Structure formats: structure tokens, C-alpha cells
Amino acid sequence: MRLSYLGIFHTVIGVVAIIAAFVSLIKNAKIDLGKLAGKIYFYCTLVASLTALGLSSIKGVNPGHILALFIVVLISAAYFLYWKKPGNNRPRFVENFFLSFSFFLSLIPTVNETFTRVPVGHPLANGPKDPLIAKTLLLLLLLFVVGSILQFRKQRKINRSPDFS
């Protein structure tokens, strides 16, 4: 199946967002909107989610569109918390969770589309219900849960530090 120009643009922007998220998570243990990688993640995810609304193999609204809109809500709320509630405080827990959750949700269609298209001619999976996709998403869910717990613990430590007062 060939990609449209919108599909190619969406894919490139989405890959940039995923790379930026990984860079931010590795460097900062969170997607930090105050750093370049976090800003790139935010803007590229916003564009990728909005362009996803124009992509569909079936007519009408589908679960992918709902997922894209939900991701926009999550990153927008995180952005609001970052700019309106500065500092290391309770809103950071929610901001961190929203950004990490948006990243996890972004990986769901990414895994599905990648595994059902690559390598060209002999894809790794036959469709969304393929066991390889399910196992990969389960692994990503476990990583998300563990990562969220670690982020929560790190943020709690930051909030309790004397420098925060």
C-alpha cells in the first residue's frame, strides 16, 4: 500500500516526535517541555496527531481519529500545566504523566503500521490482531508503567528537596 503525500509528511513528523521523546526520556527521565527535545516532541506530536485526522483507509471517524484527538488533549493539557503552573510542584506529576501517556498512545499506531508494512513485501505482522503486535504493545505498556512509577518517584524527590521551598 502506497502512502499519500499527507501520509509521508505525517510519518516523517511522527518519527521526529518519537526520536525527540526518546532523547528527552534518556537525557531527562521525562519529556521536558523546557528543553529542545521536549519542544520538538510537543510540536511534532501536535502536527502528527492533527494530520492523522486526514488519514484513513475507511470513510468517517475511526478509532485512530479518536486516539489522535485524545493525544492532542493530553499534550495540550501538559503544555498548559507547564506554562501556567511553573516550578517543581504537584502539577509536574500530571504533566509528566500526560506527556508519557501521549507518547505511549502514539506508539500504538506506530507499532501497528510499522509491523504491517515493514519489510516491504514481507511484513512482520499480518494485521492489528497479530500476536507479535500484541506482545510488543504489552511490552511497551509495561515499560510505560515502570517508567511512570520512576518518574513519579523522581518528581516526588524533587518536590521534597530543600531547593524547591
Could you explain the architecture of this structure?
The protein has 165 residues and is mainly α. It has one domain (5-164). 72% of the residues lie in helices and 0% in strands. The protein is built from five helices and no strands. The chain has helices at 5-28, 36-52, 63-84, 90-115, 131-160. Helix 1 packs antiparallel against helix 2, helix 3 runs antiparallel to helix 4 and helix 4 packs antiparallel against helix 5. The longest helix is centred in the last third of the chain and has 30 residues, at 131-160. The radius of gyration is 17 Å and the shape is globular. The termini are far apart. 22% of the residues are buried. The mean pLDDT is 92.
Using brief descriptors, characterize the structure shown.
5 helices; 0% strand; globular; mainly alpha; 165 residues
SSE layout and pairing:
Elements: H1 5-28, H2 36-52, H3 63-84, H4 90-115, H5 131-160
Q: What is this structure, in a nutshell?
A:
This protein has one domain.
State which percent range the strand residues make up.
Answer: under 5%
Q: Give the biggest sheet.
A: none
SSE ordering:
HHHHH
Q: End-to-end distance, in Å?
A: 56 Å
Q: Helix share of residues?
A: over 70%
CA-based gyration radius: 17 Å
The number of helical runs is 5
